[in-house]
Amino acid sequence: MDRSLPTVTTTHPDLLVSTARLNLNEVENQWRLNQLNNAATTLVFITVVINIFITAFGAHKTGSVAARTSSNPI
Questions:
Q1: Which of left, alpha, beta for 22 (phi over 0: left; psi -120 to 50: alpha)?
Q2: Parent domain of 8
Q3: Based on CB atoms within 10 Å of each CB, which residue in 3, 18, 47, 57 is the most buried?
């Protein structure tokens, strides 16, 4: 299972709840909301990059299933 997905699913709702509580129309909240938006965007970008590398290098095929289907029997 992809390890980055559970991390993102637990982090993103916290960011969204924090963002929803602040009013964008208030000038004093705009800097904080911008920082939260940047953090959420960064987390999504990192998750996508990690998933691309996992898919590209076939890391999902390693483990006990791949060991049992090896062409070299023990």
A1: beta
A2: 4-68
A3: 47
CA 54, CA 47: separation in Å to the nearest integer? 11
Task: Return the amino acid letter for 57.
Answer: F
User: Encoding tokens for residue 48?
Assistant: 């996508």
pTM for this predicted structure:
0.53
In a domain, 51, yes or no: yes
Which residues, 6+ apart, have CB-to-CB distance to 18 below 8 Å? 36
Place of tokens 């691309």: 52
Closest CA to 40 of 10, 21, 12: 12
Is 74 contained in some domain?
no
Q: What's the pLDDT tens digit per position in 60-70?
A: 555 555 555 55
Contacts of residue 54, defined as CB under 8 A and 6 or more positions apart, other chains included, come to: 2, 60
